Amino acid sequence: MSDTHRLKEDCDLRRLVAQDLGPAPLHGGRAHLWKCPFHHERKGYSLAVWPDGYRCFGSCDTQGDALDWLRQYRHLSFADALLVLGEPQPELPPAEHSHLKGASEPPEWEWQERAARVVSLAEDTLWSAEGEPALNYLLERGLTTATIRAARLGYIPGDFREWRALEGLDVPCGITIPWFAADALWAVKVRRAYGDPKYVHIPGGSAHGLFNADALNNHRVALFCEGEFDTLVVQQEAGNLVAPVTLGSATARMTARWYSALIGQQRIFVAYDRDEAGKKATERLLRLSPRFRELRVPNGKDITEFYLNGGDVYAWVEEALSTETKGRYINEYR
Ligand SMILES: [Zn+2]
């Protein structure tokens, strides 16, 4: 291995960048995020820096390794850059405050195992005679049986005020919606037939998941929906165009973990409900990065209502992609 190579390997680029730009405003896993200095970014945090490289996911697409950084940002000669790489770098300072909640972890493994068994049980029930009313409800919301199966929705029968003791967990009765993402089960939300609140979690789950987050791996455009059923409608109708995801409600906040999962997305549409809560939540997301953009449903209060009124979800999403980007993302992606 050459000396240059070894110097680069020994260097944690995040420390070098912190010397130049100050402590990282955001951390997401191994990536630390800054405002990109190469395109004088004002609104977002598009510069992602890993121990061994950096890349701007904003408008300039600048990227490189530690040597590139020293030459591009500090304008050092190759020889001087090598000298800097050989110097010891100071420890990383802690992250500053930001609009995001801190990093989030999935629930402990034992909870996940128990909850996964509840999900399977509820799934079996949904497709049995006992589950018929719940299945009919889901079909009336515009979901196909393929969508319902893929999302692994299920049903715990019983009065809406009842809770069942299953697998050592307290489980509310109603339609179960599992939040699988990144090889973990983050939460199981239950939609009850009546009652307030209508949606309750099986206790012990995390409130900081991102529903359908795995779809982000296959796409460069994401679409934030307000709830799970809207997300599933978009997945069903336009899942080959965008990755629909949801934080679960208008009041749920994004964590640095999911923000960093979004760095590969070139555009992130936000199609929340057309009401006051949806508007506030949209503004909060739009403040995070200029890549976020509001996308209004053409009619109806939300995506499901638009769809049930005969709206063409595929055409709506496709049009948004083509007007926003003049077809760039579609051509690049599928
Ligand atoms: Zn940039």
Q: Which keywords apply here?
A:
single chain; about 325 residues; alpha+beta; DNA Primase, Chain A; DNA primase DNAg catalytic core, N-terminal domain; four-stranded antiparallel sheet; 15 strands; disordered C terminus; binds zinc ion
Can you describe this structure in just a few lines?
This protein has 334 residues and is of the alpha+beta class. The chain has helices at residues 3-10, 13-21, 66-72, 78-86, 109-126, 132-140, 145-150, 228-238, 256-261, 276-286, 303-308, 313-325, 328-332; strands spanning 26-28, 31-34, 47-50, 53-56, 63-64, 154-156, 163-166, 169-172, 174-181, 184-191, 199-201, 221-225, 243-246, 267-271, 292-294. α8 crosses α12 (313-325).
